[in-house]
Amino acid sequence: MPLLSTIITKNYISDSLLIIYSKKNKKLLIYSVENHRIERSIKLDNQIGSQNSNVYINPFGKMYILNSEFNSISTRLIDDSTELQMKFPSVLDSFTVYCLGSTFRISADSQFVLDKIPSYISPIENKENFKNFFSMEMYRTYKIVDGSIRELNNFGAFPEDYKENFYNSFSPVSFFIENDSVVSYIFDKTDYIYTVSLKTGKTLGTIKLKNGGFNTNPINIEKTADLSTAKKYDIQNRISFILFKDKVDDCYLLIVKEPIEFINGDGTLNEWEDAPFSIYKVNMKGDIIEKVKIPDYIDPRYCIMYNNKIIMRRKHSKIVKFYITHLP
Amino acid sequence: MKKLLTTIILLSFICCNMIDRDTQFFSTYLKSVFNADVPKSQHKFILVSANGCHGCNALILLHAMLKKDNNSNTYIFSSDVEEGIAKIQDYKNIWLDSSDKVNRLKFHGGNSCVMYTSSAKIDSIILINVEIVDSMLNSIEER
């Protein structure tokens, strides 16, 4: 297994592939979890990863979306097979777009769905803008036509409460089911799992989580101007950040960051990686039927479901290692 | 009246004690990471967490590079910012924390802050506000 720590800055996983962004070489490296080797690399243009930029890679199928903040390039899509790089419509320049779930495929007619996240929306800055943002439909359908990306329609509503109250939550965590024709999603600080048809955009059902303590109180709007308040809020609350559907047991698996104190007694701050993580097994009635604590040596933030098992990454490992687990 | 006076004295004591504790904590940090002391003259430390707002951090770095001749301001970043600066040795006002402990200092609340010091003590701390970061940076250069 290669030593990758010196070149990894960001990475995400799609199916059995790990996508590594090499800032130094300005390349995307496609690493196979099954074969334990780099399968191929894609050279990026020199603009990407330039000074002060942060590149976010979101893979879906064999395509990768690159969001690069605070430099000259805009959001773009890279086709793994042709290495064609396509720019998104300029309206997205001020947003970070994310693919939904880890199993999304582009359809035969070159359509795909993404959600979008604003750079930062603070209700105190402009209450009307804030309300308008959360009144928009959060999913957007795109189509690739002659090597360029066209925007089609929007669908999917934010919870009603988001228009009035601030949860520092801009996008749901989603998982595609039923041959990618249906998406299930949950907002990170709420206790409802929604299921929506991608074909019609209509809600097919909702499940309320019972007895889990997932419904969080909003932040005091007057205190949202500084990021430290939002950070403290996220660290001190329970946050759902990955949703899977277990097809065998017909239940949801919700990966959750548990709450911890923001400031330690010694004057240091806690970050996400200091918090304990758990997997909640939720049946279709919303009952939490099992809770499993994720071992401390695992970083569940980069994980995938593969053959109905969850593949996670070990923490603090100089070598990229994976831990394959499934609930009892 | 007696009760009020006692409360005021007690609160002042607690407050001073907290500030002293913060100064002590920050002094230990400066000594262990940079072998430096909190200056006796008036000084400003701009503490930047790599885990904070990326846009703010980019602006603060740019600001630090433009104001490299201002000796009364010190910008402390974690080590990964080095990749963005060609010749870091040219910028005496930028200190890189190779231990990355700066990311975990409570003073900036996980984002960034301006810490005003004098007589080897912390006078005040102002969190950098994400919406007005540019004007805040300009104002600290003027003060």
Describe the structure.
By secondary structure, chain A is mainly beta. Chain A has 2 helices and 23 strands. Chain A is 6% helix and 45% strand. Chain A has a 4-stranded antiparallel sheet, with no helix packed on it. In chain A, β14 and β15 form a beta hairpin. The mean pLDDT of chain B is 82. By secondary structure, chain B is α/β, with parallel strands linked by helices. In chain B, α2 runs parallel beside α3. Chain B has a single domain, classed as 3-Layer(aba) Sandwich (Glutaredoxin), CATH 3.40.30. The chains are: A mainly beta (328), B alpha/beta (143). At the A-B interface, α2 of A face α1 and α2 of B.
The total count of strands of chain A amounts to 23
Structural class of chain A: mainly beta
Strand content of chain A: 35-45%
Structure annotation, total helices of chain B: 3
By DSSP, the count of extended strands of chain B is: 5
**Overall mean pLDDT of chain A:** 73
CATH topology of chain B: Glutaredoxin
Name the strands of the widest sheet of chain B in spatial order: 3-2-1-4-5
Largest interface: A-B, 24 and 30 residues
Strand order of the largest sheet of chain A: 1-2-3-4
CA(first)-CA(last) distance of chain A = 29 Å
Helix/strand order of chain B, N-terminal first: HEHEEEEH
Chain-averaged pLDDT of chain B? 82
**Order of helix and strand elements from N to C terminus of chain A:** EEEEEEEEEEHEEEEEEHEEEEEEE
Quaternary status: heterodimer
How is the topology of this model organized?
The complex is a heterodimer of chains A (328) and B (143).
Chain A: E1 8-14, E2 17-22, E3 27-32, E4 37-43, E5 54-60, E6 63-69, E7 76-79, E8 85-87, E9 95-99, E10 111-118, H1 127-135, E11 137-145, E12 148-157, E13 173-177, E14 182-186, E15 192-197, E16 203-208, H2 227-236, E17 239-246, E18 251-257, E19 277-282, E20 288-293, E21 298-306, E22 309-314, E23 322-325
Antiparallel strand pairs in A: 1-2, 2-3, 3-4, 5-6, 6-7, 7-8, 9-10, 10-11, 11-12, 13-14, 14-15, 15-16, 17-18, 18-19, 19-20, 21-22, 22-23
Chain B: H1 2-34, E1 43-48, H2 54-66, E2 73-78, E3 94-97, E4 112-118, E5 121-127, H3 133-142
Parallel strand pairs in B: 1-2, 2-3
Antiparallel strand pairs in B: 1-4, 4-5
